[in-house]
Design goal:
This protein is α/β, with parallel strands linked by helices and 314 residues long. It has helices at 3-21, 94-102, 122-136, 138-141, 155-165, 220-226, 234-239, 267-278, 292-297, 300-313; strands spanning 43-51, 54-61, 74-80, 107-110, 143-153, 181-182, 203-207, 253-258, 283-288. It has a single domain (45-212, 239-313), classed as Rossmann fold (3-Layer(aba) Sandwich).
């Protein structure tokens, strides 16, 4: 058997084991027990928004006594799972949320609507709803709404950058008025009536990122996310690419990628890092000698570096 085939089988086995290990029994209660915001016990399966009758759920990971607190308010990070936009779950990012908490950064680890039932831009809108939820509930959460970061891997990294790079004029903020229902912390009935005007974030962390969707072969991921190849809807592919929105004034960005990645070409992150630096965006890029799945599974080096980047910029 050729080396490439062996490596492919190993990666697939690791991915299967990861999905199994990262999927503990879920709390099926519709009204999770909240406790106090200062309690370090995560709040599971809270509903942060509703779109197209879909309840969008997340886990809130609070912290006690964060060294990053200012005037009694903590930063916060929105954590976004991967899965090619058509699979995956917030439990996949549980380890990252826990490590953020240990370093004093509370996080909202979210689910979003999945393709092919919900294609672009649905997951981007959902991710922006998570920003709305944190900012609108910042007082109850003990969070500074001006110190929000985003951390995603793979498709989740794409959504993090799309949410952090785009502006209202790009047509992805859905603010006039938003079609989502955003809930108050601890409630699935009380709605936020006054939406935050500013959806800007402070720092972005993006691993294994598909940053230019116009560059690459039409594959199962794109088929599910878009439904049609780029030759038929090139403008949609450009609109869905973070690289389209690179400009001066973006928040600091930490990128990491495995240089043996056969799912998302490492050149996607290399070129993005170069383009960001050309626009004087505060950018750090870490490349490791692993593939797409292994970079996610064996990520201590990358996550430690990413959190250090967050700490110094948040």
């Amino acid at each position: 058997m050729q080396l490439t085939s062996i490596l492919t089988l190993i990666a697939l086995a690791l991915l299967t084991n990861c999905a199994t290990a990262a999927s503990p029994a879920k709390n099926k209660s519709n009204s999770p027990s909240l406790g106090s915001v200062s309690d370090a016990t995560p709040v599971r399966d809270l509903v942060f928004a509703q779109r197209t009758k879909v309840l969008l759920k997340a886990d809130w990971h609070p912290v006690n006594g964060s060294p990053l607190a200012r005037d009694g308010k903590n930063p916060a990070c929105i954590v976004i799972h991967g899965g090619g936009w058509y699979k995956g779950d917030k439990t996949d990012m549980e380890s990252i949320s826990r490590r953020l908490a240990r370093r004093g950064i509370p996080s909202l680890n979210i689910n979003y609507r999945l393709a092919p039932e919900f294609r672009f831009p649905s997951p981007v809108l959902d991710t922006k709803d998570a920003i709305r939820w944190v900012k609108a509930n910042s007082q109850a959460l003990g969070v500074d709404p001006a110190r929000i970061c985003m951390f995603g891997y793979s498709a989740g990294a794409h959504l993090a950058l799309m949410s952090g790079f785009t502006r209202p004029k790009d047509g992805l903020d859905d603010t006039t008025p938003p079609t989502a229902r955003i809930f108050r912390f601890g409630s699935q009935s009380e709605l936020i009536r006054k939406m935050p005007a500013d959806l800007g974030v402070k720092v972005l962390v993006s691993g294994g990122t598909p940053s230019d969707l116009t560059d690459g072969k039409y594959n199962e991921y794109y088929e599910k996310f878009f439904g049609r190849p780029p030759s038929e809807i090139p403008d949609t592919y450009r609109k869905a690419s973070p690289v389209t929105y690179v400009r001066r004034g973006l928040p600091p960005v930490f990128l990491y990628h495995g240089n043996h990645d056969w799912i998302v070409d490492v050149e996607q992150s290399r070129r993005l890092a170069v383009n960001l630096k050309k626009q004087d965006v505060d950018t750090e890029y870490l490349e490791v000698t692993l593939g797409h799945v292994a970079t996610f599974l064996f990520d201590d080096k990358e996550v430690n570096a990413a959190v250090s980047f967050l700490e110094s910029r948040i």
